[in-house]
What we know:
Layout: E1 2-6, H1 10-24, H2 36-51, H3 54-62, H4 66-69, E2 73-78, H5 84-95, E3 100-106, H6 109-118, E4 126-130, H7 138-146, E5 151-156, H8 166-176, E6 182-187, H9 194-205, H10 207-210, H11 212-221, E7 229-238, E8 241-252, E9 256-260, E10 263-267, E11 272-280, H12 283-291, E12 295-301, E13 313-319
Parallel strand pairs: 1-4, 2-3, 2-5, 3-4, 5-6
Antiparallel strand pairs: 6-13, 7-8, 8-11, 9-10, 12-13
Bound molecules: S-adenosylmethionine.
S-adenosylmethionine (SAM) binds near residues 80, 106 and 158.
Amino acid sequence: MVEQLFFCDPDSLKVDYLTExxxxxxxxxxxxxxxxxxxxxxxxxxxxxxxxxxxxxxDFFVKQPFWLQAEQxxxxxxxxxxxxxxxxxxxxxxxxxxxxxxxxxxxxEQMLALATENLDGEAVPQTYALGDFSRPDFSARLWDxxxxxxxxxxxxxxxxxxxxxxxxxxxxLALLIPTGDYLYLDVVPQYATAHENQQLRxxxxxxxxxxxxxxxxxLATLGLSRENGDIVAVESRDGVLNTFxxxxxxxxxxxxxxxxxxxxxxxxxxxRVELLSIRAYDVASLTAFLAxxxxxxxxxYIPDVGNLGHRWQRLMFVKSARPET
Length: 325
Ligand SMILES: C[S@@+](CC[C@H](N)C(=O)[O-])C[C@H]1O[C@@H](n2cnc3c(N)ncnc32)[C@H](O)[C@@H]1O
């Protein structure tokens, strides 16, 4: 069973994102993944996904408590992309008799098309929704879709969580996820040694070179290119979270006018356009931060990622009625 839903009109989303970019000189990160951005992202990420051992994730999942409470579990992937990270997990859970239903949500039509294609032929029941989870009406629209399940696991995979302002995304998840449901996060963790962390920081700071066509595609959508300036990486503190946070900007070399969607804006020489933030986490401070929003850590593991340049860590939280102390 495959169901396709539209919580909003994709063209109006694109117009809104571009308008936001022009007004705030900051790129809403959804814009990266529209149009060719979806393929550009997976030109890198598919190779990484192939390295991550799915069997460990399956073992991690089947020991979670929700199977005992539930006849039907919704796995809600917020920012599902091409559904690549969860494909094997869903397939094996369904084959193993676990009653799972997949709900893939993304603001990019192109990403949802990749997800549908990727899971085509998989027996797990699937619902896809085009929607922006930061919109005020999203929570109610999603609730209509998932209300009949006994348990919902809300997943944010592939570093999606780490791209957002952390207070904003924690507040959003706290409002979206009902008491008793689960949050499953995938983040880049820091290492135990200063030497490894130094290498991690160097790698994060080089994202615009390592993911060059991804950044180039975004600049092209904005009517810009690297020839309009330098991409600079700024490492900065992140409130109570002890993260390594890198924010990438295009620093404009000469004053120029950009036009998107029939709107124009002048970027002054030296002005910075904010492109993207990425983070690597100190997991203890992340856990303490999310406890303040009612998320209690249940379980976590670090999958074998073969020869990838950094690790990923999966964290399973349960939502309580009030903030954990
Ligand atoms: C870093 S990618 C990760 C994709 C996928 N989960 C993976 O691990 O490969 C982030 C995804 O989130 C989507 N996204 C970003 N902001 C969103 C929003 N506000 N609402 C819905 N989807 C969003 C993007 O379109 C993109 O597909």
